[in-house]
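Predicting structure from sequence has reshaped protein science. With that in mind, we have picked out one protein's residues alongside their backbone shape tokens:
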Amino acid sequence: MMMRIAERSHVIAGGSALSALVLRVGFIVALSAHLSACVTPPSGESRPIASVPTGVPERILTEERTTLVQMFGGEYSANENLRSQLRKIVDRVVAASDDPGQRYRITILNSSSPNAFALPNGELYVTRGLLALANDTSELAAVIAHEVAHVTANHAFKRAELEKIARTLPDALAPNEANTSDSIQFLRASFSRAQELEADEIGIKTMAKAGYDPYGAARFLSSLARLTNFQSLSQSGRRMSFLSSHPATPQRISAALVTARDNSQNESTEADRIHYVEALNGLAYGEDPSGGVIRDRQFFHPRFDFAFTAPVTLKLENSTEAVLGLDANGTVAMRLDIVRAETSPAASLAKGWIENIKIDQIDETLVSGYDCATGIGVGSEWTFRFAAIRKGSDLFRIIFAARNLTPELDRQFMESIRSFRTLRAEERDTLRPLHLVMVTASENDTVETLLAQTRGIDRPLDRFLILNGLDRPKLKSGAPYKLIAAD
């Protein structure tokens, strides 16, 4: 995802101060009623989609699509070879599905997190991070078939019905609010797990019927699990991924293997690695540094030439409009954005940034040599710490929000504000764009000789093994492999 500068200074306003601050974080919750969380070429290449199913207004789906695409970095313009591979897989899977007459539009999202989604009107989304992780056509077909299964099984509508039922629980079942909450959460979790298992089973049967290797589903789930473990160990697994909405437990992988065995065909099935990996040549890998890069609590932006460190409890997300942060309990949040500096930092704060929140105690200071002003605002439920930093013609606006602004939290907020600075030369060197290159192993090649062609990648061996679906560093002569290269 990419943070960009706003076109002009504006007042942050909305239904509430908090919703204005963490709008895109909250969007995930709002979308869940219609989104089957578990690809189109550029819009000019899109095929028409089916009419919106009864019960979901077209306006709502259009708004959700717009917000979803923006939240995941916009559409990604892949090469024609990769777009052709995707169109072929979608067409084959849909033809073998329970509703072959349903039309689908598939969009590639410019996000490094491996993820896929489906809207009930047949809109499918897959991130470039997921495309990079797949290793053959059957693995990608497994993802597409899983999402198509969500649509044909009407899972989004069933979840919406569950929400209606859940709202009746306080009077019908629960004697107190705590029990009500526990009951609702239990029902939702159980319902979601059941839907994922059902989509797995339907999807594997569908992809096998379409002529793809049904074992591709288990292989892909295993790669996802390995990637998630890798990210957790490297303390960079905070990004929203396929596994956060599609839990890949060992039991789920085992179930996928059982379903694959039951649906294996004697004749050959497709698992085309060579042509698929060739199609990935040049695909952007990792975060797009032009829009800013998150590394644990730090945010780096090469175009605006700044670095910033968030408080220790916050997990960061980068969107097209702002950098957002939220703690695990939803009681502390932050927003950082950039607007054109039309006034001084103090004058900007004095105008107010959030509707119905007056900014008081405005103090002027210097942060890393730049003019800065800080202030405090108090709402009915949240207390806010504000900071404005002027750097050239840009005004960096930082908002922290807390349910209970303790002295320790305020200290962390002020420490975070003081962390704002320009990038160091060595940091700029590490923010070069990365992409995938396809290489064919020769008889004399080893993993070490291939990795010698890469530079500036942390834990290169682990990344190579995960990216290529390998359990051990052993190559097969004549086989294609993915390497990570810098521009």
In short: The mean pLDDT is 80. The chain is about 40% helix and 20% strand. Residues 432-486 form a domain with the Membrane-bound Lytic Murein Transglycosylase D; Chain A fold (CATH 3.10.350). The first strand starts at residue 36 and ends at 37.
